[in-house]
Automatic annotation (TrEMBL):
It comes from Deinococcus aerolatus. The gene is trmD. This is tRNA (guanine-N(1)-)-methyltransferase. SUPFAM superfamilies: alpha/beta knot. The lineage of its organism: Bacteria, Thermotogati, Deinococcota, Deinococci, Deinococcales. Homodimer. The keyword Transferase applies. InterPro entries: Alpha/beta_knot_MTases, tRNA_m1G_MeTrfase_C_sf, tRNA_m1G_MeTrfase_TrmD, tRNA_m1G_MTases_N, tRNA_MeTrfase_TRMD/TRM10. It comes from the Bacteria. Residues 246-270 are annotated as: Disordered. Keywords: Cytoplasm, Methyltransferase, S-adenosyl-L-methionine, Transferase, tRNA processing. Specifically methylates guanosine-37 in various tRNAs. Its EC number is 2.1.1.228. S-adenosyl-L-methionine binds at residues 110, 129-134.
Amino acid sequence: MLTFSFLTLFPELLAPFAGEAIIGRARQRGLLDVNLVQLRDFSDNRHHKVDDTPYGGGAGMVIRVDVAERALSSLPPADEVILLSPAGPPFTQAVAEELAGKSHLVFLCGRYEGFDARTEGLVTRELSIGDFVMMGGEAAAACVLEAVARLLPGVIGDPESHRTDSFSSGLLDYPEYTRPPEWRGQGVPEVLRGGNHGAVALWRREQALRRTLERRPDLLMAARLTPQDTLTLLALGVAAQQLQAWNAPPPPAPRRARRRKNIVVSEQPE
């Protein structure tokens, strides 16, 4: 079982993510656990104050390193102590898959002007969910919780479903359709209604490549492309030089037409 521990000034912000929907049901079934730790419980003053003004002046308040250290010391040993920070490398699907193999993850969720810089010596890694400014680390931590928890065995209904999701294969996901078959002049692609599973799989892969090419071509540099993918991308107008830059494998060799043997039928006299 993987335990997520969140050190935060606002545990009530994370409580809904930990108690509802799929994650809530997974907790009830003992597939994972979520521990919400109030940083104010580790202050050393009667007012439960955990921050102070920054040395050198400036706006805002900074969370004290000694408060963070006491909170971390109260927890069982962790595989990773993660600081949600804009200075960290991007959180990706590959990182989510790595973290899903751990047993205890601790997250430091900052507020105000963040943690004292010396807190960085207490963590094992920093993570960022994007190049934008937020008011705290709780929303970012919730993103990591959902992305990692869904990869744990038994959490989602179909253990194979996450393998075809966006980014799991290195590509964006293919488009999905359900009822009604016709809606405001837009129909469901006929291939999805024909019952040919091989044709459906081929169509979905082609659509995933098309979507990625149109919307996130940067992903194709690291995608696990096949020779058939190369053939599809060529048909979509991608230049051979670009495919080489993406380290795409050569397309499959064209099939040679089989030669028909001429069969001579001798006429036998009656």
